[in-house]
Design goal:
With about 725 residues, this protein is α+β, with helices and mostly antiparallel strands.
Length: about 725
């Protein structure tokens, strides 16, 4: 089993270079951001399928192998794949069976709403299952194509991964530059790669004596979608189902025209020298540049026929400028004055997580959990994960990146309102697994989750805290008030005890409970109360009277159930932590009630502390997800248990593995997991800047003299 300890970088070297003489965060001197960032430049020296690197602009990303391009996509298929994805790149298979979304709906009687309609996967109904499968898989994220090198050996055969020797590749995080050196049969090759920040494209410069002998070609290969949970960009079958044509056979500029069913896009290659194109087979082309020792190429992916005349120098300038602006904006954290040997690895994860989220999760829409590398869950974003993808941006003083993607909620509003209406509720019920058009994906789990509901209130509140303007109040009030309307109409009134209950009919964040039996999960209760209170505050800020129905829920919402001095996983789960319990797997969601949230006079701090102890002891941490460790660290920080916060962030579990690139590895199915990266950044903001009412400096770090953490530009959490 892969353990994080196998991936630690040379800690002792770091400690020998950085003394403890720097002042803690309260001192005014500025952090040397370039030094912090570049000491974590990624270096690759072997062919490693988990060592691929990416360049990207936040709405487009391009992942490369040891050649600096996508020369061996099939070899990397089982690792971190060599994907090319953009936020506009979607494909839909023809609906040949004429499925209607209504065929996925099934009626339930929850909370006094008979025949509430939920989109599910009914395995007892073949037609329903077929319809559910279709709408889950369509539309799906599209792999736009592979751009790599074809290198010929002396005997005329094409070089394979094992033919690459003397590999020395480095990602410069400060500039977004990947510089790759290697040899083939002793002859050197050098490739420099950048992503463009003005188009969805990349540029590369290739240098090698092999060019003089026409032994290096560019290759362009276009896969077809898989119609599967994952699409790793190497499905080269079904050639008859799509079309690829190129406009020229010789010249400096070439446009590939791609048609897949009713979807179409273009790929334009622009070289600084003449080249000739040859068709190897359908959807597979090589390009032979007329070059003595080097050539440059820019490749642009576009929905429309591109007219760019992009050059390598322009892309290089765009990348250097954009990355410098990013790193010099917002927050920064410097661990160089720390003597605890764990500090370097923690700083590495923090720096690389910023690079990965900026390059893959900073576009105009919520993103899937595998970003813009390869499809997971068909490429669809999960809105309960949106907090983990995006909350760190305002907490790190980079609010503009959240402001771009949160606009999806306005697009989704009408469809979310219809979901609430068909289930008998007011307001809007936000989709769980969805797409850019806000269509709902049928699911036996997702359709019953509710903890995505308050996210928009939390995230809008973070935006407002960073810019408390009337304009922001007016902009987001529709989303907040309609969200609160649903949240007030959803709980079920318990007349006997004069209280409101969440459930039955709910699957909590810890997704291992039966929706037919579960009620009052703790994280959802705490989040419900806090979000409704925050919605009331927005009304007050706008000069409006409190909303009576909201306040009724706030005042009479069920308390978090407890037994033997600890909070239960749900009121309906009295054996939450017993030795025979099957409930100590998946997300330790009970801790979420005091992680991103304040105790709010709703969570008893002593009881949560005792709950933390038992969760820490009995939980199956090998059966968790990447964001569970930041979740635990945030709870530990609010409980004033900083050593536990550090331990949580660096637990030696497979799902807490951070690859050389910084990607959060989960398993063979999910070789990267960006909610883990976003989560560690949010946790770091809390551990440094604290939370409202906190009086402890750097509350998430031990006060034993070994953690002199210096930071600037971070914002406290609520």
């Amino acid at each position: 089993m892969m353990k994080t300890t196998l991936l630690l970088l040379p800690v002792l070297a770091f400690l020998s270079l950085h003394s403890c003489k720097e002042k803690p965060s309260s001192q005014p001197e500025k952090i040397d951001r370039n030094a912090v960032v570049t000491r974590h430049n990624v270096k690759i020296t072997t062919i490693d399928t988990l060592g691929s690197l990416n360049v990207g602009n936040g709405k487009f990303a391009f992942t490369v192998d040891a050649t600096g391009l996508q020369s061996f996509p099939e070899f990397y298929e089982k690792g971190v794949p060599l994907g090319t994805q953009s936020e506009w790149g979607w494909h839909t298979f023809p609906n040949t069976e004429n499925f209607e979304f209504s065929e996925t709906l099934k009626g339930y009687d929850f909370n006094g709403n008979p025949n509430s309609l939920y989109a599910i996967q009914d395995r007892a109904n073949d037609r329903n299952m077929a319809a559910a499968d279709y709408f889950r898989a369509n539309p799906h994220g599209l792999q736009l194509g592979n751009v790599g090198l074809e290198i010929l050996k002396k005997d005329g055969t094409v070089a394979k991964p094992e033919d690459l020797k003397d590999i020395n590749q480095e990602l410069n995080l400060w500039t977004g530059k990947i510089e790759s050196h290697f040899t083939v049969e002793g002859i050197p090759v050098k490739v420099i790669t950048y992503a463009d920040f003005k188009t969805d494209g990349i540029a590369a410069k290739v240098e090698s004596p092999l060019l003089k002998e026409n032994r290096i070609k560019l290759k362009f290969r276009f896969p077809y979608p898989t119609n599967q949970f994952a699409d790793r960009g190497v499905h080269y079958s079904n050639n008859e189902l799509h079309q690829t044509t190129v406009n020229e056979q010789k010249g400096k500029s070439f446009v590939f025209n791609r048609i897949l069913d009713n979807d179409r896009y273009f790929v334009k290659a622009i070289l600084n020298t003449e080249a000739s194109v040859s068709k190897v087979e359908d959807h597979y082309f090589t390009m032979q540049p007329d070059a003595e020792d080097s050539f440059e190429v820019a490749v642009v992916f576009s929905e429309e026929n591109p007219n760019e005349t992009l050059t390598f120098n322009e892309v290089e300038t765009n990348s250097i400028t954009a990355w410098k602006d990013f790193w010099q904006s917002g927050g920064a954290v410097d661990f160089s004055a720390c003597t605890d040997p764990r500090a370097f690895e923690l700083e590495r994860r923090v720096v690389l997580s910023q690079y990965l989220t900026r390059s893959q999760c900073a576009g105009n829409y919520p993103v899937q959990e595998t970003g813009l590398t390869y499809n997971s869950w068909y490429g669809k974003p999960h809105m309960e994960m949106y907090w983990w993808h995006a909350a760190h941006y305002p907490l790190w003083g980079r609010t503009e990146f959240l402001e771009k993607s949160i606009g999806w909620y306005f697009t989704a509003y009408d469809k979310a309102k219809l979901i609430a209406e068909r289930q008998g509720y007011k307001g809007v019920r936000w989709q769980k697994m969805t797409d850019h058009n806000a269509d709902e994906a049928p699911s036996n789990v997702g359709s019953f989750l509710i903890w995505q509901q308050p996210h928009v209130i939390y995230l809008a509140e973070l935006i407002y805290r960073n810019n408390p303007s009337k304009e922001n109040l007016e902009k987001y009030k529709k989303l907040i008030f309609s969200t609160a309307d649903f949240m007030a109409s959803y709980p079920n009134y318990d007349a006997k005890n004069d209280r409101y209950i969440l459930g039955k009919g709910v699957i909590p964040a810890q997704e291992c409970f039966d929706k037919m039996e579960t009620f009052n999960p703790p994280w959802e209760l705490a989040y419900w109360k806090w979000a409704l209170q925050t919605a009331q505050q927005w009304r007050e800020r706008l000069g409006l009277e409190p909303q009576t129905e909201w306040q009724n829920i706030i005042d009479k919402l069920s308390p978090m159930a407890q037994k033997n001095g600890v909070y239960l996983a749900a009121e309906s789960v009295p054996d939450s932590y017993s030795p025979t319990s099957k409930h100590t797997i998946d997300h330790p969601a009970v801790l979420g009630a005091m992680a991103m949230l304040p105790h709010n006079n709703f969570v008893d701090v002593k009881t949560m502390g005792q709950t933390f102890d038992i969760v820490d002891k009995v939980w199956h941490w090998d059966h968790t997800w990447g964001w569970d460790f930041p979740l635990e660290a945030m709870t530990a920080t609010r409980l004033n248990r900083p050593e536990d916060a550090i331990k949580a962030l660096l637990r030696d579990e497979t799902t807490n593995t951070y690859l050389p690139s910084g990607h959060n590895y989960q398993n063979e199915r999910l070789t990267l997991y960006l909610p883990g990266n976003g989560g560690i950044l949010s946790a770091m903001a809390l551990m440094c800047a604290g939370f409202d009412g906190n009086t402890i400096e750097n509350p998430g770090f031990p006060k034993d003299g070994t953690w002199h953490v210096k930071w600037e530009g971070l914002k406290p959490m609520p």
